[in-house]
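Here we describe the complex-level prediction in full. Unlike the single-chain runs in Section 2.1, the two entities below were treated as one system.
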Amino acid sequence: ELKVEQNPLFLSMQEGKNYTIYCNYSTTSDRLYWYRQDPGKSLESLFVLLSNGAVKQEGRLMASLDTKARLSTLHITAAVHDLSATYFCAVDNMEYGNKLVFGAGTILRVKS
Amino acid sequence: DSGVTQTPKHLITATGQRVTLRCSPRSGDLSVYWYQQSLDQGLQFLIQYYNGEERAKGNILERFSAQQFPDLHSELNLSSLELGDSALYFCASSARGGPDTQYFGPGTRLTVL
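The structure predicted for the assembly as a whole is:
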């Protein structure tokens, strides 16, 4: 069974600080995705990571993938209040059908 | 705005009833996925359709069914509703049938009283 674990599940941080969210998955994955969800809203695609060593950056967010360790990280640099949201990682694997398996999500609160 | 539309936005109904949720994918996308989001279960995959055919199935209850029509819109039918079916139901779409970025609609919030 394909499982995804995120930690921490809740993160409260001060503006201007750096932090990292971790995403571990249980078996080989075709792709790893990061999504953002604001309260009561839809999921917004942030990054798609396709291969070992992949790194993508958008603004203050940077995602990386280590397929050997089955680990992805989402690094937040100099956090601002607008980054407050829930962040999900998800993986897919054709052996398990073409579905996304999501982690539990990390609730990020940036305090000013 | 992802380009995926869902109706209705909110639905309040009683136990035992039946409801239909509707989804229109992004223009050109052939795959439609349904997910359920609840506090206790998180985000769970229900079912995928690709170009009118069922492609993959998750832990979808027998009381739930879905279909994708020739114009590629999809409907999720939920019957004999229970309190535990209260959740946010998302539709997502992607261009292909295989691994691909999925774009999520705004969701339908279902409340069963």
